[in-house]
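user: can you give me the structure for this one chain? tokens are fine.
assistant: on it. calling the predictor now.
[tool input]
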Amino acid sequence: MKIVARHPAFIGRHVPTLVALVVFVFLAAHQLSLPGLHYDEAKEAGLNAMQLVLGQPVTAFRDATIGIGRWRLPLMVQDYIGALNVLLAAPFLAIGGLTVSALRGLPICIAAMTLVITGGVARQLGGSLAAAVAVLLLAVNPTFVFWSRQGIFVTNLTALCFMASLWTGLRWWRDRRPAHLWLTVFLWGLGLYAKLLFVWAIGAMTAVMLVLWGAGWLPSGKAAKQQSGKAADRQIGVWLVAIGCFLLPLIPLIVFNLQTGGTLISIFSNLGQSYYGVNNRAYLPNLATRVGQLVTLLRGDHLWYLGEVYANRWAPWLMAAALALAVLLAVLSRHSSIPSRRHLAPLLPFVLLGLIVAQSAFTVSDLFITHYALLTPLVSLGIGLVVERLCAQGRGRFGRLALGAAILAPVVWWGATDLANTLRYHRILAISGGYAAHSDAIYALADFLEQREPSAPLALDWGIDAPVRFLTAGRVNPIEVFGYERLDGPDAGFEGRVAPFLDNPNNLYVAHAGEFVVFRGRVEALRALAAGRGQRLQEIARFGERSGRPLFIVYQAAR
């Protein structure tokens, strides 16, 4: 109580962040089991975390594990995605139970920390008003809310590492304290391990630092002055420790590649054209696609799988206006006798965002809009900094109030529209249950398979295996026999993998229906193979979206 009484200004500064945090948690945690469990959520965290909690053998990616005591921990969950979510999700499942809601509690906590740190960065670069605008806009943003619910699916750990490293990096730039440098590069290594695309954030931050350094805009704080006179060997020692801090969280990635070479294979085999068919030589067309995705991200109308599309059509225009104002403020700062950090700060988030978009036109997978979970906080951060700097331009109390009202009005409209759309998405989600790979039909399928008690049904398509294993706590373990080599049809080894299972008439085969098929031709090939053996592939159950569209079909081979 004494702290509150002595420091009312401290409480006042952080009230907007507390309000934003409460609003965000309410919006993110509502009907948390919807949409349905996505394959990537189960594959990249839930399944391995569940196996660790239950003491089951871990089905590690490429069988690459490291032993710690009685546990065999997975090193990676994909060639370019680390197992960090697995390790973090295990305590949530141990405490909250083996449920989808407990699993999604992890990314919501990660997003909440991202929100708080974004406010801290805004306060460091601008002030309390910048922090208030940034956190409140972020808290109601439909993309941030719904991607946070399924944050494992979009690897929202990268956004947390990005904003945290930006916060510590700014402190190091200002004070030159080695601890801040070491923490920054540690977070860089952690983000890179979380997902390889974090290299975009590292590249953007490094480029900005080098430009500022080259322009001679160096910190003049006391710590920096003291450090400038230290011996060269001390500086070398600081940077050697920094290299160690960067490499420390990358040890699992390094060990994984020593065991399998998976990451290197994935990168070098997709340099020209990715697995999903993206031509990395077509940089400008890819960049145009990425810019279009950025506009879509601002509008928030990419969340179709929740049941409907709602757009904030003003957001891209307001973002463009904020960028223009940030540039104007930076230009005007050149006429100031002493250009301050706060004159140039509003431009920083936009520069970082632009550099990340420029790098993202190259990919080893596909041009997925979900990659931009990394940069979502930059939008609200940039808006907050521009608003604060503009409000400070007013002369006199009345002038500042009038100018502030004029500036805040469109920002309030932006936030109110985003909040309304987030609530609309929740309402339609309660009706739809989610579409396609996000449908809650996966729950009905898992229940059916568990009741039929097939220990190992055959999955004829992607998106079935991991969610069913997680939802049945490992009691049903589908076998993926479809083969990842080709999307357009079965590979040469498909028949050999499937044929032995046709000897048992009780085996079940699970596939997607119609437009939802990812790896095509597998059901047709199985039907032909069964017919050649005098068997008929018979549909015994189907499960669909709440809209009525069939999504999963279960088959059995009968004579």
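assistant: here you go. The chain has two domains: 16-224+231-386, 439-558. Residues 396-432 form the longest helix (37 residues).
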